[in-house]
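Design request, tokens follow.
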């Protein structure tokens, strides 16, 4: 399948009083039409910064560093003027944020907020845009859409507000939707409904989705590809099946251990990952996971691990896969978390 978005060597830094925070340190990923890429990792690993970079939303003191590429429609957007970004943002690629209340404008009716995008990107007049807004609210499952379209964000429940965010993102029929922790603030039932809605819409509209989460469990039955991020880098990437059945990186093993399993011993406590990620102000010499890794070897402290490629373009950046390292993989999930896509 052809990639519609290709991100290469993305590096984003924040110049702060304390020094340069290297938030994203050379990240590569791509998405093809109708595909879901999940970006998974702990708090602070650079998921949102990567997403904002792809949306052209990095603001001072942040910079996208030279050598970074965000390729869309035959162009590297990093090298384009703001006018190109404006066409792409909202029109071609839209973002759904975790906190819908903060992302929505409290002083505008939801209808006007949906219509805004249609007027800017699709040359609709106000009446057409409002009609389309009602259709979109219906599409995302908001009852009495013709009345609700005139209401303000505070008049909606958390789950309904997230549906409004999805309607805004869908307004211009974008090719890509980036959903940054879209369900974290919601309770479990509503969470499942929102993910189901995203899946249905994706099937119907063939939109590509970049789904960002700290919880591998959330993406188990949705992601075609999974990129696992740690301290500003992608340390493992593969198909959903490979990540769940044959994970190759100790950090991914820890993340999988932290997901509740239906087939496991329910009395067993969930395993949290001990320790903290490295300070992003520091230059890292060896493997970034070294302080927390149960499989750490001498070389891991001295030299950054190379990336090893396995079948099906599954990749992992860890010394354990070097030919000189003997032993069996200490972790197999049996894929119990993975529900294969129909
Ligand atoms: N405006 C900023 N100024 C300085 N540092 C920043 C800024 N924005 C982000 N960072 C730093 O970049 C790093 C990555 O942040 P990011 O928001 O991408 O994390 P995340 O993976 O999305 O985490 P979470 O799961 O908590 O949302 C963090 O260490 C953060 O402190
Ligand atoms: S390179 Fe070494 S420290 Fe890093 S994850 Fe692999 S085994 Fe652990
Ligand atoms: Mg984030």
């Amino acid at each position: 399948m052809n990639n519609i978005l290709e991100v290469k060597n993305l590096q984003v830094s924040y110049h702060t009083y304390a020094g340069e925070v290297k938030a994203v340190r050379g990240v590569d990923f791509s998405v093809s039409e109708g595909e879901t890429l999940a970006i998974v990792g702990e708090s602070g690993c650079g998921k949102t910064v990567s997403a904002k970079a792809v949306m052209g939303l990095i603001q001072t003191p942040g910079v996208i560093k030279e050598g970074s590429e965000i390729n869309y429609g035959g162009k590297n957007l990093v090298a384009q003027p703001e006018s190109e970004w404006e066409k792409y943002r909202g029109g071609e690629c839209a973002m759904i944020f975790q906190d819908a209340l903060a992302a929505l404008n409290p002083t505008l009716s939801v209808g006007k907020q949906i219509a805004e995008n249609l007027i800017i990107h699709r040359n609709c007049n106000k009446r057409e845009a409002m009609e389309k807004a009602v259709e979109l609210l219906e599409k995302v499952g908001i009852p009495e859409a013709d009345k609700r379209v005139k209401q303000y964000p505070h008049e909606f429940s958390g789950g309904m507000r997230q549906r409004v965010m999805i309607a805004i993102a869908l307004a211009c029929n974008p090719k890509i939707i980036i959903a940054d922790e879209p369900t974290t603030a919601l309770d479990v039932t509503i969470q499942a409904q929102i993910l189901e809605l995203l899946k249905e819409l994706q099937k119907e509209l063939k939109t590509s989705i970049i789904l960002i989460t700290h919880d591998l469990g959330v993406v188990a039955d949705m992601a075609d590809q999974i990129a696992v991020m740690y301290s500003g880098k992608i340390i493992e990437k593969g198909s959903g099946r490979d990540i769940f059945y044959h994970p190759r990186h100790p950090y991914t093993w820890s993340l999988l251990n932290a997901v509740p399993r239906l087939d496991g011993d329910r009395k067993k406590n969930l395993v949290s990952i001990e320790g903290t990620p490295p300070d992003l102000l520091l230059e890292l010499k060896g493997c970034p996971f070294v302080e927390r890794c149960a499989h750490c070897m001498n070389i891991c402290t001295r030299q950054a691990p190379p990336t090893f490629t396995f079948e099906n373009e599954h990749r992992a950046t860890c010394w354990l896969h070097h030919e000189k390292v003997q032993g069996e993989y200490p972790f197999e999930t049996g894929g119990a978390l993975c529900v294969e896509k129909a």
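Comment from the thread starter after seeing the answer: thanks! The longest strand covers residues 3-16.
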